[in-house]
């Protein structure tokens, strides 16, 4: 693992990898206003006690649709895990128990609209709506500060706008091979659109598949959303660790691999309290290939703020 720390301080969506990676506080009470809750199936067993660690499912209402949030209660800070394009909360199922045990924090995962147990929102994907869903869910769960946000792939866009709008909510962020603003130049957006067309054509054959549905809805707004995202900035007040995979989402395209890595380095150099970490040997699926590294960096971020 190579690690660089800069005194000045990127993220993308992708399920059909090129497009969706670019296109992929303490909870003091289990139930907040407007949140219906129920006990979800046990996700794991505590390594310390051998007893099940249960996540409670809360169905959150936001703007006329319902979203599933899963809360594994702890004490102190809150860690929120946001998956990449086409992935639901189950993406983090192996990491949640280890993270809960290592930090003692409350751990929250959720299904974005149209994925997992969350309702579909018709029309093109809008990052503003995705940010609103996450904001509303945390608010209804009573989470108002001291959040470490962990965002993979497409969720980097959500993280950036959430941080801009609510810097006081976040104590820090770990951006896991995430979409970052510097990457989305006009030239790169054009390359991504061309690269993803065969995947979009294939998705059209089964548009009701949740991953295909998200890919198609993301593609509908991809150019406009990505162009705007290129102008977004990360607030200096929120520390960020950027984990960039060795292979990136573009393994097999050396030019795009280098652009992805350069964008991550640029993001880190452009602001204070930002750290760049390379996940050696990892594909874009860093949480699966290098869970040890992701866990370590989340632990480091939580510890640094307390």
Automatic annotation (TrEMBL):
Span list, region Disordered: 32-51
Pfam families registered for this protein in UniProt: Abhydrolase_6
Signal sequence, renumbered to the chain: 1-29
UniProt-recorded Gene Ontology molecular function terms: hydrolase activity
Keyword list, A-Z: Hydrolase, Signal
Low complexity: bias regions: 32-46
UniProt entry tagged with the keyword Protease: no
Occurrences of domain AB hydrolase-1 (ranges): 79-296
Superkingdom of this protein's organism: Bacteria
UniProt KW Signal keyword: yes
Gene3D superfamilies with a match to the protein in the record: alpha/beta hydrolase
PANTHER family: HYDROLASE ALPHA/BETA FOLD FAMILY, PEROXISOMAL MEMBRANE PROTEIN LPX1
Protein name: Alpha/beta fold hydrolase
Lineage: Bacteria, Bacillati, Actinomycetota, Actinomycetes, Micrococcales
